[in-house]
Amino acid sequence: MGESIPATISIGGKLPNRLVDEFEKLLDSNSDGFSNTDPRNNPCGSFELTNDQAYNGEFEDLEAFCRKNQLTYVRKSDAKYDFEAEYICWQPGMESPKIIAGSQNSGPVVTLKMLIAAKEDGNTLDEVIADNTPIDVPDFAIVNDDEVPEVASVS
């Protein structure tokens, strides 16, 4: 059985008009009822959705929609019970989302075990930091359909 875990997702990129209704339905179904779920009413920057009762701290269908439609996202799931806090990041060009360990209050974390493994692999501290830093989410914008090519269906 899944747990209700607080989570926030920041979404950025260009959403074509033809997908706004579908996106809004996904926002509504993933909302805790207090977040803005109208993508047309996003003042500036990335679009952010918070849900204090997200199923397993995820927005599974919304994240899949973002990947399918080339929208960058960073999801932060809080720690709860046996679940560790984490950041899940994806942007166009990535094969799969990047998972970054997090802490409840301090953001991303790098453990001693991770540092030792990185050293054994010959990675520099700069590489470790880059690998464990969430990606930058671009501004979110609704654009004309012809500004974004249609993408093939992703299962």
Structure explained in plain terms:
It is built from four helices and seven strands. It is of the alpha+beta class and 155 residues long. The protein has one domain: Alpha-Beta Plaits, CATH 3.30.70. Strands 1, 2, 3, 4, 5, 6 and 7 form a seven-stranded mixed β-sheet that branches. The longest helix has 11 residues, at 20-30. The radius of gyration is 17 Å and the shape is globular. The two termini are 24 Å apart. The model has no long low-confidence stretch (mean pLDDT 88).
Distance between the termini: 24 Å
Structural class, from helix and strand content?
alpha+beta
CATH-derived architecture: 2-Layer Sandwich
Helix content: 10-25%
CATH topology assignment: Alpha-Beta Plaits
Residue share in β-strands: 25-35%
Can you identify the CATH class? Alpha Beta
Largest sheet: 7 strands, mixed
Mean pLDDT score: 88
Low-confidence stretches: none
Number of discrete domains? 1
Q: Tell me the total number of β-strands.
A: 7
> Helical region count?
4
* Cα shape: globular
In N-to-C order, the SSE pattern is EHEHEEEEHHE
Question: For the CA atoms, what is the radius of gyration?
Answer: 17 Å
Short account of what is shown:
Helix content is 23%, strand content 29%. With 155 residues, it is an alpha+beta fold. The two termini are 24 Å apart.
Topology overview:
Layout: E1 4-16, H1 20-30, E2 47-55, H2 60-68, E3 72-77, E4 86-90, E5 98-103, E6 107-108, H3 112-120, H4 125-131, E7 140-143
Parallel strand pairs: 1-7
Antiparallel strand pairs: 1-2, 1-3, 3-4, 4-5, 5-6
List the defining traits of the structure above.
Alpha-Beta Plaits; 23% helix; globular; 29% strand; 155 residues; alpha+beta; 7 strands; single chain
